[in-house]
Design a protein that fits this description.
- The complex is a heterodimer of chains A (106) and B (118).
- With 106 residues, chain A is an all-beta fold.
- Chain A is 0% helix and 50% strand.
- The radius of gyration of chain A is 13 Å and the shape is globular.
- In chain B, the strands form two sheets. In chain B, strands 2, 4, 5, 6, 9, 10 and 11 form a seven-stranded mixed beta sheet that branches.
- Classes of the chains: A mainly beta (106), B mainly beta (118).
- At the A-B interface, strand 4, strand 5 and strand 10 of A face strand 5, strand 9 and strand 10 of B.
Chain lengths: 106, 118
């Protein structure tokens, strides 16, 4: 099974900050890496798939990059609507999720 | 508009059974693999099971193998999860998700809560 880790587990930031979340896989998963956003009491929402492709309707301030076993999700200028928990997910070999990164208000 | 609506959750005693349903609409259901993903209270997302488009192939997480059965009725556009021998560790919000081969989980239901407790 492929294990996914994320860092940090919690990130405190302010509106307008550049935010970077890192995701690592126990073996190569390229290019089958997605990012999901989840707000409290809501279902997850797909943000990015295949490492860097924005899902339709997702603001361009979100971007994804990486390859092999290391990936990043970047929010270029944090907005009030972006305070949420973010999960990376690999779908190279079956499916597994990272433990999540909670982005909260500094 | 794609919609996934789960139902069938609730309170069940340890050792009991429950069947979740997920009604799909807004897309050609039979052409998509479907998955169940769960989330224990205050915890992260955990993959549970998947089924291919015609229902001929299924796969399960080790934690539910032999106890849970995923199935689908393409005539009714409905996905199911039969859960047997439930334990407290199965307490979670259960999401059905649509899986695109390129996009992965591109649509999620609103989730259905299963609580296993005496």
């Amino acid at each position: 099974d492929i294990q996914m880790t994320q860092s940090p587990s919690t990130l405190s930031a302010s509106v307008g900050d550049r935010v970077i979340i890192t995701c690592r896989a126990s073996q190569s998963v390229s290019p089958w890496l997605a990012w999901h956003q989840q707000k409290p009491g809501k279902a997850p929402k797909l943000l990015i798939y295949k490492v860097s492709i924005l899902q339709s309707g997702v603001p361009s301030r979100f971007s994804g990059s990486g390859s092999g076993t290391e990936f990043t999700l970047t929010i270029s200028s944090l907005q009030p609507d972006d305070f949420a928990t973010y999960y990376c997910q690999q779908y190279n070999s079956y499916v597994s999720f990272g433990p999540g990164t909670k982005v909260d208000i500094k | 508009e794609v919609q996934l609506v789960e139902s069938g959750g609730g309170l069940v005693q340890p050792g009991g059974s429950l069947r979740l349903s997920c009604a799909a609409s807004g897309f050609t259901f039979s052409t998509y693999w479907m998955h169940w993903v769960r989330q224990a209270p205050g915890k992260g997302l955990v993959w549970v099971a998947r089924i291919n488009g015609d229902g001929s192939s299924t796969y399960y997480a080790d934690s539910v193998k032999g106890r849970f059965t995923i199935s689908r009725d393409n005539a009714k556009n409905t996905l199911y999860l039969q859960m047997n021998r439930l334990t407290g560790d199965d307490t979670a919000l259960y999401y059905c998700t649509r899986y695109g081969m390129t996009t992965s989980f591109d649509y999620w239901g609103q989730g259905d809560l299963v609580t296993v407790s005496s």
